[in-house]
Amino acid sequence: MLALRLVRGTRPVVQLRRLLVAAATAGVGFLLLCTLGYAVGHPDRSPASALRLLWCALPLAATVQFAVAVARTDPSVRPRPGLSAVGLGPARLTAVAAASTAVACTLGSAVALLLYLHLRGDLTGLPFDGAAAGLLAADRPVPLAAALTLLALPPAAATTAAGLALRPGRTDAPAPRGAERTLPSGLPWGVALVAVGLAAETYAARGGGSGLPLPGRFDGSPTGVLAGWVLTAIGLATAGPGIAHGCGRLLQAFRPGAVRLLAGRVLMDEAPRIGRPLGVVGAVLSGLIAAATVYASGPGTDAFGPLTGLGALLIVVCTTATLLTAALESRQYRARTTEALLRLGAPPTVLRTAALMRAGVLLAVFLPVTWLVGTLAALPLTG
Fold first, then answer.
1. Interior CA angle at 66 toward 60 and 69, to 5°?
2. Phi/psi at 214 (5° precision)
3. Measuring CA to CA, which residue among 254, 274, 279, 272 is closest to residue 366?
4. For 319-338, what is each residue's pLDDT tens digit?
5. What average pLDDT does the chain have?
6. Radius of gyration from C-alpha coordinates of the chain
7. How deeply is 182 buried, as exposed, middle or buried, from its count of CB atoms within 10 A (0-12, 13-18, 19+)?
8. Backbone phi and psi for residue 212, each to the nearest 5 degrees, phi listed first
9. Which residues cross the membrane (predicted)?
């Protein structure tokens, strides 16, 4: 009840972010139900059904990451003076954040079920009822237990991840003075994972098969390519904080002025918080570059199907929204520093210029890295 009151009493912008989480969960739930419909309609193609379910894991992970990012920026669960006196300590606020995430994701799963039944033709009286009856195996009954189990996956995963991310004693607080000279330790591990992933893709491509293991092109495709791309994505996400930290050092190189020094120091301090979602976005873009290169080079290849397009759209939108939410969280963390600089007489244009410098150097570094990894990932499949 307390979580519902806090959800209802927040600002419209916060409510919009929660609705976006519900919409993303609805998309993932619909993909899971479509996978179930394919399995019910094609009982003789269980390997293809399993691979379709494996493809749904990527949009699910992107949605969970977005839900956690929204929960971290929720002002209603932020510790404030006096809340502990009325029983709202850190542990209780973590439970409230998890409950708010569960409410939004459960709403999305319910919408997914209604949309699925409507497109099958089980719910009539509305436009487009039964429009996808053939695709969703409308001639067969829906296994209710399996459908509810699949729909429970996104809320359960997002709620658990939000509770773990916001638990008391977590290690995402700002670094102490002097620690931001310390290079994040994930950079060498990330580079190693990227190299292993590219090697796995090359080995799998030489083993036979062609194309990417996406829905509609599962049969005969090397499943090791997907495993290699996952390793590459994890590597880029792991190396993201280190790359962002290096960008901050680059801004401060060669006799920096006040603006470059401020931009570099802030970027180095924000690297652990914004670098990981930035690395995930880079991994997603590199995968899209590789997929577009492979499909463009293949003779007579078909375009992505509607469900594949929906899954790719969910991944891109959720990862981009997670990056923007992480940037908002970083802005909230440095709000006191910004106020102190303004009180000391710093012009607002200096702060805006520093922000543009941070964005520019991140784009200048991450875009070439993303293009290089995507091109290298496509070479084993196009050669």
1. 145
2. -110, 160
3. 279
4. 999 999 999 888 888 888 88
5. 81
6. 23
7. exposed
8. -100, 145
9. 20-40, 52-72, 93-117, 144-166, 187-205, 225-244, 278-297, 303-328, 361-381
Instruction: Please state, in angstroms and rounded to a whole number, the distance separating the CA atoms of residues 60 and 66.
Output: 10
The model's confidence at residue 49, banded by pLDDT at 50, 70 and 90, is confident
Tell me the two tokens of residue 8. 């209802």
Give 198's contacts (C-beta < 8 A, 6+ positions apart).
228, 232, 373, 376, 377
Signed CA dihedral, 107, 112, 115, 116: sign only = negative
**Could you tell me the CA-to-CA distances from 160 to 156, 163, 196, 259, 358 in Å, in that order?**
6, 5, 30, 41, 33
* Sequential DSSP letters for 121-150: TSS-SSTTTTTTTTTTTTTS---HHHHHHH
Residue with tokens 């009151």: 5
Distant-in-sequence, close-in-space partners of 50: CB < 8 Å, separation ≥ 6: none
What does the domain layout of the chain look like in residue ranges? 2-165, 179-382
Residue 318 has pLDDT above 80, yes or no: yes
- pLDDT tens digit string along 250-296? 999 888 888 999 999 999 988 888 998 999 999 889 888 877 777 77
Say how far residue 135 (Cα) sits from the centre of its chain: 28
Residues 6+ apart with CB under 8 A from 245: 183, 184, 187, 267, 268, 271, 275
**Cα separation, 245 vs 264, whole angstroms:** 9
Give the three-state DSSP class for 337: helix
CA 245 to chain centre: 21
What is the residue whose two structure tokens read 């990527």?
58
Q: Is 177 exposed, middle or buried (0-12, 13-18, 19+ CB in 10 A)?
A: exposed
| Measured distance CA(259)–CA(73) in Å, rounded | 27
Amino acid symbol at 16: L
Structure token pair of residue 25: 């969960």
Question: How far apart (Å, rounded) are the C-alpha atoms in residues 36 and 291?
Answer: 25
Structure tokens at 119: 């497109």
- Candidates 271, 234, 232, 277; CA nearest to 250 is 271
Contact 38, 137 (CB under 8 A): yes
Single-letter residue type at 105: C
